[in-house]
Amino acid sequence: MFISQLNSVPENRRKRHYLISKQTFVYDNEESLLILLRDVTNVVLLDEERQKNQLMKLLHASVSHDLMNPLSAVRQFTNIMLYEYR
């Protein structure tokens, strides 16, 4: 099984994702092939959205942590200046 994108989708619509599986079987002494297409577009889009949310959380945590030290230093400097010039 594998996931495939069909390129016959018009440009103004989103691409669809399909899970393609094949199975051979014997029916009336003849070998036949069964091909199943399952639309998994929503599953793929949900997974992509979860990945984006995880990246945004990591970015937010990183930016928050990186800004904390400089802002803390500014706050301490401001407190010192206010204390000295009272």
Offer a quick outline of the entry.
The protein is built from 1 helix and 3 strands; from the N terminus they run βββα.
Round the Cα radius of gyration to an integer and report it: 28 Å
The ordered string of helix (H) and strand (E) elements is EEEH
Which structural class fits the helix and strand makeup?
alpha+beta
Number of helices: 1
Number of domains: 2
Report the count of strand segments.
3
What helical percentage do the residues reach? Answer: 40-55%
Structure in words:
- It is a single chain.
- This protein has two domains: 1-39; 49-86.
- Strand 2 and strand 3 form a beta hairpin.
- With 86 residues, it is an alpha+beta fold.
- It has one helix spanning 41-84, and strands spanning 2-5, 17-27, 30-39.
Q: Key terms for this structure?
A:
2 domains; 3 strands; 1 helix; 86 residues; 3-stranded antiparallel sheet
List the helices and strands and how they pair.
Blueprint: E1 2-5, E2 17-27, E3 30-39, H1 41-84
Antiparallel strand pairs: 1-2, 2-3
